[in-house]
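[SOLVED] Predicted holo structure with coenzyme A

Edit: marking solved, answer below. Original request kept for reference. I posted the sequence and ligand SMILES and asked for the 3D complex as structure tokens.
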Amino acid sequence: MRIELKIEHEIDSDQHDQITSLRNKSFPDAPRERSYFKQLPHFRLLAEDNGILAGHLGVDHRIIRVGGTILSIFGVIDLFVSDQHQGKGIATSLLAQITELAEQKGIDFLLLHAVDGRLYLKNGFRVISPYLKSLWLCDFENYGVGIERLDNIIYIKSTSDKAWPDGTVDIMGYLF
Ligand SMILES: CC(C)(COP(=O)(O)OP(=O)(O)OC[C@H]1O[C@@H](n2cnc3c(N)ncnc32)[C@H](O)[C@@H]1OP(=O)(O)O)[C@@H](O)C(=O)NCCC(=O)NCCS
């Protein structure tokens, strides 16, 4: 098993096809004929087993505002592992690798949204319930900016010495 960091524009069409296929199997309620749900990420970690995609984690590098504090975050998008490779610690390895990179590069927090947070709680994240301001975006059209309270679906992990500030989260774009 090998985990490779790929900048978005360096991902070739075969890899996009593999990501699309595995993404659609992993999220059958939200299939799309593309390798991303709303928008291209900035880079991805791809776990490969002899050239076959086994796991994926997309990353959006974003500046956000929480209350009056500006933070640099890695937003984690579309974490999935193929059925055959599940339960072997691949998602845990992907999260460990993105944590290490964020720590090395001066990123303040990892942030993601998830309904089932078991994996994240095991990997050093905690859940918050903020008011969150975001761009509502769906299938290549945006519908303006909205604020909503998100109860127990936003997970954060510090990758710096900063404490998470109080206040509304302005995610400064779509919610990954
Ligand atoms: C969730 C998922 C990425 C875990 O991948 P994995 O490589 O098997 O994970 P690991 O082996 O590193 O860790 C296993 C732990 O993940 C957690 N987990 C398992 N399925 C999960 C799920 N659907 N959602 C959240 N956490 C899950 C459990 O805590 C599990 O530990 P346990 O077996 O002791 O209970 C994989 O099951 C998957 O791709 N599911 C479909 C897509 C998905 O739900 N992605 C997460 C979106 S938030």
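OP edit: Helices lie at 13-26, 90-104, 118-122. Thanks to everyone who chimed in.
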